[in-house]
Structures are given as structure tokens and as C-alpha cells.
Amino acid sequence: MQKTITIIGATGHLGRQVARKLDHKGVKVTAIVRDVISARTILPESIQLVEADVSDKESLVSALVGTKTLYITLNTTSLDPSLPFHTEREGVINIVEAAKVTGVQHIMQIAGIDYLHPELADKGLEYETNIIRKPGIEAIKNSGIDYTFFFCSFFLDTFPTFIENDQFAIIGNHVHPIYYTNTTDLAEMIGNAIGNEMAYNQSFSVQGTEGMSLPEAAKKFVEGYSPGTEIVLHPIAAIAEMGLPEEQAVFMEHMLTYVEQLKEQPVSQKTWQVLGKPDTTITDFARDLSNAS
User: Fold this and answer.
1) Counted domains in the chain
2) CATH number at residue 147
3) What is the pTM of this model?
4) 31 near 49, Cβ under 8 Å?
5) What's the pLDDT score for residue 77?
6) What angle, rounded to 10 degrees, do the helices at 214-225 and 282-292 form?
7) What is d(CA 230, CA 215) in angstroms, rounded to the nearest whole number?
8) Spatial CB neighbours of 5, under 8 Å, sequence gap ≥ 6
9) Which of 44, 108, 117, 152 might form a disulfide with 206, Cβ 3.0–4.6 angstroms?
10) Is 48 in a helix, a strand, or coil?
11) Which residues form the NmrA-like domain (predicted)?
12) Domain limits at 62?
């Protein structure tokens, strides 16, 4: 029987890649989007589009009719918990309430590995977006619906955004190992979790098999993605000189300061036993990205 999944957040940078790769694997994918016309320019024709907004619970109820397995991939980009609405807080709570009404049987969600393993923060820092996303995560856990959480390491998919004018810019002093993941391996794990009772009511760490610092990983990445690209190091203070809007600059500084002291250890053995061991190297993923661009 063909596997099916509904995705909320399928037009985001990571969401669109997961949606495409699940679709390519033969999973029947439905994407709930705010703007069907815009989404159709991003997602292939084989993915069904349904219009709804996470701020409108009634629209979600209509959109989720018939959904058995739901995957949520949303992203918080503000550090202000006092805002009246966050997609990963009120938005997820609305999704959960709609899922209970429509009989969704399994909810999956993505978040950062730091949420599940705060001990990896070498200096004891807390990633402040976790404060915002926590009520949504708790709403899923308390919903009575089977859940699966994917708590992911740093995504290689973001690396091309660091490259400009043949330079890969690294901001901060990144010396600790990170076990980089990617949407190819994540999509494989999500596909393996559909209808898999061993994945129900579980929290999985998602890491790659290669632990290395950001400069080391960047060097491997550019070898496959854009040979000849120069790795350039900048201090955190350089963010203030980038001319970014204040909120964006504050978020970037906090995020990079946190990543700078994140000292990952391999903590994904349980994940590999249940959902399969990743087999995509940094170089191979970079080559795949280069060939697709």
C-alpha cells in the first residue's frame, strides 16, 4: 500500500526539499499552504496542494480531512516570546486542535537537536527559540495522538546561503564537532517512520556520521559543491556591520553564539536502529546539490 503524508511548512527551505524527496520516493504527499498559486511554483505537480493558514484553526480542520500522518516543519525567526503569535507556538497548537477534530493518527515534527540534548551546550547556553516552541511540542505530546519528533543537527542544505562571490563566510569561532545532517537522510527517516509503530511516541536525534568543526565541514562541502571557493572567517562582531534589520541581526548573533559553543556527541544510535543509518556524506550531498542547481 502506498504511504501517504500531509506536510505543513512544505514551502520552507527545508520543507520543500523533504516534500520533493518523499514524493520522489513514491510517498503520496499533500502540502497545506497559505497560497496555492505561489506554492505551485515551488512544488512539483505530483504533490497535492490544499490551502489553509496555521493562524486559522477552521481552515486547518477543512484542510486536514482525510489525513492520517502529518509532518510539521515550521521555523521561529524571532526571539520575542511576548509576540501574540508564533507559528511554532500558537500555530502548532491550532494544528493539534484541528488534528484531534479530523482524526489524524500520527503527528511528526522537526526541531533542533539542542532541544532534546541541552547537555551538548558546552557553556550551558540555552537556545532561546526553544522557549517559544516548547508549548507547541507539549501540545503534541499531550494530544493523545501518536507522535514522532526529529531533533536535528545542523543542515548541510543551508551551506549554499553562506557562499557569495566565491567565498564561504563563517561567522564565529567554530572549533567543536557537529554531526551535520541533510534533507536526503531526513526524508528517508520520515518515510521509514510512516506507519512504523516503533517510531510512535518517540523523540529521535538526527545526525550524520561525520563529526567535524564548521570550517572543516565547509572545506569538504565546497570540494563537492563549488571547487575553488575560499573559506573566510569572521568574528561574531561582524554581524553588526552587515546592515541587517535589528531583529534579524539579534537573532543571527544569538544563533551563531549558541552554535559556536555547541559541542555535539554522537547520540543517534537509537534513531539508526529504528529508522535506518544515514549514508549521505558531506561531499556526496554537496555534489548532489551542485548537480541539481
Assistant:
1) 1
2) 3.40.50.720
3) 0.96
4) yes
5) 83
6) 40
7) 11
8) 22, 27, 28, 29, 30, 69, 70, 71, 190, 194
9) 152
10) strand
11) 1-270
12) 4-292
